[in-house]
């Protein structure tokens, strides 16, 4: 008989079969519990049982759980089994994100990065402290209640500045009506930070980062946060664009080669002429050509929904674990479409 596990923080539930450990059941049903050794020795998968009790095979506690800890409700998910329903806390396995706030920012600069893409820099008020995870996004708010969403392209707001990469969208209220008329010092109302796309440090796996278009913006923010870090995992970045002149960040990205661990940058062009000597075609297919085994990687996808859907499916065929695939789809907005998150 299967037993139910209630997750205290979210109200979610999953079921543990008699032959399963809690960790095995969670993995099977897409519930994230960090783990490492999976034989009870390291404590990475430790959870807190807040209602009920767990049991262990042969009534033998794993090495990472002392007798008094067991009595206090601590459990090793990789070894714990159930003979009744329980409630658990996964607080140690969930990241705490900065609180969302609304602030007014002023335009610092507007520069064309390449045809159809602009780099917009905003200055926050000196007295306002803004925190966000590299990779998160913000909303630009309008007086009529509408909003437009853009990923932040910098690692932090240490100097009170925020950078956005904005692709022009046919019929777009912001990109075709507001953006061309912005002047230095103009005020914009922001809501930030938003979203759950960011670097998951606990994974410590080689990273494959895949972007199309301005999906490079949150990837840039994440990678900037890893520059010169001793604990940076190996990184491969694939960026899909149409033509060489569209690779507006290529020179900056290439300059990171000595500041990231085993860094590899692969631009992939879909409409390059004969002079282009690099990779061609679809960015997700190039990843599989270079990495036939993705089972040990953490994968970050950002860009068009079509790319993300195809890449997620394809990468799983090449061994990628869906628990370590993180995605942020950019749904382009115009005035006749509803507001959707993470827009470029």
UniProtKB/TrEMBL annotation:
Cofactor: [2Fe-2S] cluster; FAD
GO molecular function, a single term: 2 iron, 2 sulfur cluster binding
Keyword Iron carried by entry: yes
Domain annotation FAD-binding FR-type: ranges: 100-200
Superkingdom field: Bacteria
Domain annotation 2Fe-2S ferredoxin-type: ranges: 3-94
Alphabetical UniProt keywords: 2Fe-2S, Iron, Iron-sulfur, Metal-binding
Name recorded for this polypeptide: CDP-6-deoxy-delta-3,4-glucoseen reductase
Pfam families, alphabetized: FAD_binding_6, Fer2, NAD_binding_1
InterPro entries cross-referenced by the UniProt entry: 2Fe-2S_ferredoxin-like_sf, 2Fe-2S_ferredoxin-type, 2Fe2S_fd_BS, Beta-grasp_dom_sf, Cbr1-like_FAD-bd_dom, FAD-bd_FR_type, Flavoprot_Pyr_Nucl_cyt_Rdtase, FNR_nucleotide-bd
UniProt keyword Transit peptide present: no
Gene3D superfamilies, per the entry: 3.10.20.30, Nucleotide-binding domain of ferredoxin-NADP reductase (FNR) module (3.40.50.80), Translation factors (2.40.30.10)
């Amino acid at each position: 008989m299967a037993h139910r596990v209630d997750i205290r923080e979210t109200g979610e539930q999953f079921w543990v079969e008699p032959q399963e450990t809690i960790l095995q059941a969670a993995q099977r049903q897409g519930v994230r519990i960090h783990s490492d050794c999976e034989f009870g020795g390291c404590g990475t998968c430790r959870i807190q049982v807040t209602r009920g009790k767990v049991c262990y095979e042969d009534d033998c506690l794993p090495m990472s759980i002392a007798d008094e800890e067991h009595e206090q409700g601590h459990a090793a998910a990789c070894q714990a089994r159930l003979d009744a329903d329980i409630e658990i806390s996964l607080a140690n396995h969930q990241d705490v994100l900065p609180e969302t706030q609304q602030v007014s920012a002023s335009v610092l600069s507007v520069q064309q990065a390449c045809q159809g893409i602009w780099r917009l820099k905003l200055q926050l008020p000196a007295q306002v402290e803004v925190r966000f995870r590299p990779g998160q996004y913000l909303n630009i708010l309008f007086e009529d209640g509408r909003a437009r969403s853009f990923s932040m392209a910098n690692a932090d707001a240490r100097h009170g500045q925020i950078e956005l990469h904005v692709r022009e969208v046919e019929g777009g209220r912001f990109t075709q009506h507001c953006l061309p008329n912005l002047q230095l010092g103009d005020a914009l109302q922001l809501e930030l930070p938003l979203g759950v796309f960011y670097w998951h440090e606990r994974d410590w796996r080689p990273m494959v980062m895949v972007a199309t278009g301005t999906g490079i913006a949150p990837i840039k923010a994440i990678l900037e946060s890893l520059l010169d870090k001793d604990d940076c995992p190996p990184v491969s970045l694939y960026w899909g664009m149409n033509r060489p002149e569209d690779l507006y960040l290529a020179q900056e990205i290439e300059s990171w080669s000595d500041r990231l661990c085993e860094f590899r940058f692969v631009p992939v062009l879909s409409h390059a002429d004969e002079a282009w000597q690099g990779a061609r075609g679809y960015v997700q297919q190039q990843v599989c050509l270079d990495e036939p085994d993705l089972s040990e990687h953490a994968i970050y996808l950002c860009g068009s929904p079509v790319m993300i859907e195809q890449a997620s499916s394809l990468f799983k065929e090449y061994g990628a674990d869906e628990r370590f695939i993180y995605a942020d789809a950019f749904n382009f907005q115009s005035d006749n479409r509803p507001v959707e998150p993470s827009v470029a």
